[in-house]
Fold:
Amino acid sequence: MHFVEKKPDQKRTDLNNKLKSNKILRVPGAYNPLTAKLIEEIGYDAVYVSGGVMSNDLGYPDIGLTTLKDVSNRSNQIARVTNLPTIVDIDTGFNNCKKTIETLENCGIAAVHIEDQIERKRCGHLENKELISTENMVKKIKECVDAKKNKNFKIIARSDARSVEGIDKMINRCKSYIDAGAEIIFPEALKDENEFEKVRKSLNSFLLANMTEFGKSKLINYKDLENLGYNIVLYPITTQRLAMKNVEDGLRAIFTDGHQNNIIDKMQTRKRLYDLVDYEKYNSLDEKIYNFNSEGHE
Structure:
């Protein structure tokens, strides 16, 4: 019903091929399916479902309160409306790595990342994070690798050790994670180009850079990250932040002015929305029932 041509296995193959292209993949976060459709239309390489965004959208802080059901339901809704591969944040594995991987793979997801914090984790750019041991994280990664069915389903290992143990110990952890079967490493909260370069020179794997705003990492142009040898760049919470700022500004304006006339130009038009959700494509299913036209709704 969503006019998506590619099956999940093809999306996983696409992600695998894109990673081998030596071009960095630009991956914004989608806080809902409609945003995922926009990400694809604009020409990005994949879609990301952030654990922080999931928590925020439910009105929670990002401290491990979301469940596998929460994340899998939203991830499935997002993945099924786009031809792009979808990458999902599974936090610390929801206490059952095997079940989590099986569930997310059945939802049509192309890749997941799991982190080395304790179960009551916190946002990767906050202080006072606590880590599990390297041995326990290795065990989790192996459980994830053993649970997946499709060879192109990617297990990404995220390490939060930079701000806890220092960059050298983080790199040593990541080497163990690669040996355990993680094909992509996500070094969280690196500070600047020098640190990103040091990690690249130290690790033999695909690498992911997190360009989240208001965090510990300098915001670096994707071309510079590509030149440093990174394979994926995430913009995890950007779309939610953009949306919430505009929603808040608009609601305050209506509350003050008593009407929407001063903010109409800030809104997506009805026609643009109809185009994005493919209203007129549904006419091809049964013209007796579906006879939509978006003209006249600017």
Summary: The chain has one domain: 8-236. The chain has twelve helices and eight strands.
